[in-house]
Design a protein that fits this description.
By secondary structure, this protein is an alpha/beta fold. It has two domains: 266 residues, Response regulator (Rossmann fold), CATH 3.40.50.2300; 165 residues, 3-Layer(aba) Sandwich (Rossmann fold), CATH 3.40.50.2300. Helix content is 39%, strand content 18%. The protein has a seven-stranded mixed beta sheet, sandwiched between helices. Helix 3 packs parallel to helix 4 and helix 8 packs parallel to helix 9. The two termini are 16 Å apart.
Length: 463
C-alpha cells in the first residue's frame, strides 16, 4: 500500500475517533474563555509592557524581532502579552501550590535556524523558561521543537503551519500545534471553490521552502478531493523576501488563470498583491495572510475586492453575537483609539481580530491548560492538553488531537467586499471594518470533518 493511500485510511480512522471523543470532552465540561473574568486592561500598552520578574511562569516568545519580517514579531508580542497582562491583572495562575504571574520574554530568531537554536537553548538554560512559543517559519519551528524535546520543555506552535512538523519523523510529545495546518488550509480553499463551482482555472504561487510547498500540496490534494473538474494552469515557487514578482506575474497573466492561490506571508504577501495590481492583474487571490490592512489600504477597495481569506479565527456572520463579545472587542479597540503609539496605532492593530485574535486566544488556551494542570511540569501539561477542547471568545471551538498534537477545528472562507457590504459581518457601529479597503463580508464555513488534520500512519502513537 503506498503512502498516500495509508494517509487517506488514517484520516478516515482518526476522523471517526476524533468525533467520538469530542462529545465526550464536551460532556465532561468544555473550557471557555470568560470575558466577565477579565482583569482591568486599562493600563495595557504594548510599547510599555508591565512584565513581572522573579518566580514567574515564563514564556519565551520565539519570533523575528529584526530584519524584513520584524513586523511579525510585533504582532506576536501584542497578542501574547495581552493574554499575559490579563492573567496577571487577575492575580496570576495557581501552579504547584503558588500563585504565579506570567512573564513574556522576547527571543529574537532573526528568521535564521542557527540563531533560533542558540536562542531557544539560552531561553531554557539561562532564562529558565517553561514554554517556547513560536513562530514565523516552519523551518524555525522545527528547530524550536527539537530543542524543546531535548530539554523536555513545552513548545506551542501557534503560527507555523506545516504538517510535516508533526509527522512520524518530527513529532515530539512536548510540542502542541494549536494553529491550523497547511493541508487543512489548502483543502479548505478547494472545498470552497468546489462548492462555489464558478472559477475553474487556478495558478499556485508560493514561497520556496517547507511551508510554501506544503501549502501548495494541500490545495492540490483538495482539488482532487473536492473539485476534480478544476484545472491547475500553473505552479511556481519563489525565494523568501522577494522584491520583484514581475516574472511570475507575467506567467500568471498569460496562463488564463481565474484564481491565484498563495500561502505567502508578510512582506512577500504585500509585495505580491501590490505588484499584481500595478501590472493590471485583478484576479482574486485565495490566501491566508493577505489581510494586513495597511497594505490593503494602499491597494484600495477595488484592488482588494474578491480576495478570499482562509481564516482560523472566522465565525459565521455576524461577528458579534453576545454582549460579552462586544465588550471584549471594545476593550481592545478603545485602547487602540486612545492609548497605543507607533507601531501599534496603525490599522493593523485596530480590531484585534483575524490572525491577531487567533494568536491571543491560542495563548489563553495555553494558560488555561497550565491553570487546569496546576503546574508547569511538562508531563502534567501534556496530560491536560491532549484531547482538550477550548471555546474562544468568538465562540469557535478548537480541540487538541491526542495522537499527534494537531488542532481540530472548523475553518472559514472569508470573501472581501466593499465597506457598504461589510455590515453583514461587522454588525455594530460603524458597520464596517475599514472605509478605504474591502474587508470581511460573506463567510463560508468549512466543517472540521472535511479538513481533518493529516495523521502520519507511521507515527507509533497511532498504532
Amino acid at each position: 500500500m503506498n503512502r498516500s493511500k495509508k494517509f487517506c485510511i488514517a484520516i478516515v480512522i482518526i476522523t471517526c475517533l476524533s468525533f467520538i471523543a469530542l462529545p465526550q470532552a464536551m460532556a465532561a465540561g468544555l473550557t471557555s474563555f470568560d470575558v466577565n473574568k477579565m482583569g482591568d486592561m486599562s493600563d495595557f500598552d504594548p510599547n510599555n509592557p508591565i512584565i513581572p520578574t522573579g518566580d514567574t511562569i515564563k514564556i519565551a516568545l520565539m519570533a523575528s524581532f529584526s530584519g524584513p519580517a520584524a513586523v511579525v514579531g510585533q504582532i506576536y508580542f501584542i497578542s501574547v502579552q495581552w493574554a499575559a497582562h490579563d492573567i496577571n491583572k487577575r492575580g496570576g495562575i495557581m501552579v504547584d501550590g503558588k500563585m504565579k504571574m506570567v512573564e513574556v520574554i522576547k527571543a529574537n530568531t532573526e528568521s535564521k535556524t542557527a540563531i533560533a537554536k542558540k536562542v531557544a537553548e539560552r531561553m531554557i538554560l539561562q532564562e529558565k523558561v517553561d514554554v517556547l512559543w513560536g513562530t514565523n517559519g516552519s523551518h524555525i519551528m522545527k528547530v524550536i521543537n527539537q530543542v524543546a524535546k531535548k530539554y523536555k520543555k513545552i513548545a506551542q506552535c501557534a503560527a507555523s503551519l506545516s504538517d510535516d512538523l508533526y509527522d512520524a519523523k518530527n513529532f515530539t510529545r512536548y510540542s502542541f500545534m494549536s494553529s491550523f495546518q497547511t493541508n487543512q488550509i489548502g483543502r479548505a480553499a478547494a472545498y470552497y471553490y468546489g462548492k462555489r463551482q464558478k472559477e475553474k482555472k487556478f495558478y499556485i504561487l508560493c514561497q520556496d521552502y517547507l511551508f510554501g510547498h506544503a501549502m501548495a500540496n494541500g490545495f492540490k490534494q483538495g482539488l482532487k478531493e473536492y473539485y476534480p473538474d478544476a484545472e491547475l494552469v500553473g505552479e511556481d515557487y519563489h525565494k523568501l523576501f522577494l522584491t520583484d514578482f514581475a516574472p511570475f506575474l507575467t506567467k500568471i497573466k498569460a496562463s488564463g488563470a481565474e484564481v491565484i492561490y498563495t500561502g505567502d506571508w508578510i512582506p512577500d504577501a504585500a509585495n505580491l498583491l501590490k505588484q499584481a495590481r500595478q501590472m493590471g492583474i485583478m484576479l482574486p487571490f485565495a490566501n491566508t495572510f493577505l489581510d494586513e490592512p495597511n497594505m490593503l489600504h494602499e491597494v484600495g477597495i477595488e484592488g482588494t475586492k474578491g480576495l478570499l481569506n482562509i481564516s482560523q479565527y472566522g465565525v459565521e456572520n455576524p461577528l458579534f453575537k453576545t454582549p460579552e463579545q462586544i465588550k471584549y472587542y471594545k476593550t481592545w479597540n478603545n485602547l487602540w483609539k486612545t492609548k497605543w503609539q507607533a507601531p501599534y496605532n496603525t490599522r493593523l492593530y485596530e480590531h484585534g481580530t483575524g490572525n491577531i485574535g487567533s494568536y491571543t486566544q491560542q495563548t489563553y488556551w495555553l494558560l488555561s491548560v497550565i491553570e487546569r494542570a496546576g503546574s508547569t511540569d511538562p508531563e502534567k501539561i501534556i496530560k491536560t492538553w491532549e484531547g482538550d477542547s477550548y471555546r474562544m471568545v468568538n465562540g469557535k471551538v478548537i480541540t487538541m488531537r491526542a495522537q499527534d498534537h494537531k488542532a481540530i477545528q472548523n475553518l472559514h472562507a472569508v470573501e472581501f467586499v466593499p465597506p457598504e457590504e461589510q455590515r453583514q459581518s461587522f454588525n455594530i457601529e460603524p458597520y464596517y471594518f475599514y472605509k478605504g479597503t474591502s474587508s470581511v463580508g460573506p463567510v463560508f464555513t468549512i466543517p472540521a470533518d472535511k479538513i481533518m488534520p493529516l495523521l502520519d500512519p507511521d507515527l507509533k502513537r497511532t498504532k
